Amino acid sequence: MAREMTFWDHLDVLRGSLFRALGVTLAVSVGLFFFKEFLFDGIILAPARGDFFVYRWLGIAPGLTLVNIEVAAQFMTHIKVTFLCGLILCTPYLLFEIWRVVAPALYAREKRATRRAFLLSAGLFYLGLVIGYLVVLPLMVNFFQGYSISDSITNTISLTSYMSTVYSTVLLFGLVFEVPVLLALLSRLGLVTRSMLKRGWRYAVLTVVVLAAIITPSGDPFSLMVVSLPLFLLYMLSIALCKDAEKEVAV
Length: 251
Fold this sequence. Notes:
The protein is mainly α. The chain has two domains: 7-177, no CATH class; 178-244, no CATH class. It has eleven helices and two strands, in the order αααβαααβααααα. The chain has helices at residues 7-33, 36-44, 53-58, 73-89, 91-102, 108-146, 159-176, 179-188, 194-199, 201-215, 221-241, and strands at 66-67, 157-158. Helix 1 runs antiparallel to helix 5.
């Protein structure tokens, strides 16, 4: 008969998972460090060039002129980007390590539900990153690069400013796409119901349009539609994942 795990046994499992997760993430990050040209010219800086394939599809060619005005900015950007990319690539493994820690405390039915939640969470996170990178980031770059308050001012974007936009846009959309998983969890706790979300769909549409207008300040209908559609589909997915309130039995 298997021995029941003590508090210290669980602590050892947690410590081992943390060390493995950190080790794998650092190893992947170090490996990415030596692929600088592919990582930056092929991916990170691609939306700053006018020949980015998304711009060709949209028929626009903004093209940024990036400059570096800080001594250590390029080196620190190299380190930060490789670590963040390593963390993103290792997300499934990190979730697996979390699973190894929590699984012993779950029943069989709870394990199945948690496994599905982890898989859905990872899938939505990557989908959010892709949409943020391929859709939202190019639209923002195109708008802000061409926006001017005076003809006497030339837009010359610093590397730090561009990278800040990349981080805030792409990673933000990755996190935003976790909303259905969060609402599904709140539904299991009885704080949110499917009926509640269905009744609030009009407010959801208004909120989505306002958020899309903030994200894509150009205001043209195409940009609003491109950004609004995935956000509204997220809301619909949240409705599908949430449980409905149990019907009260009349006395």
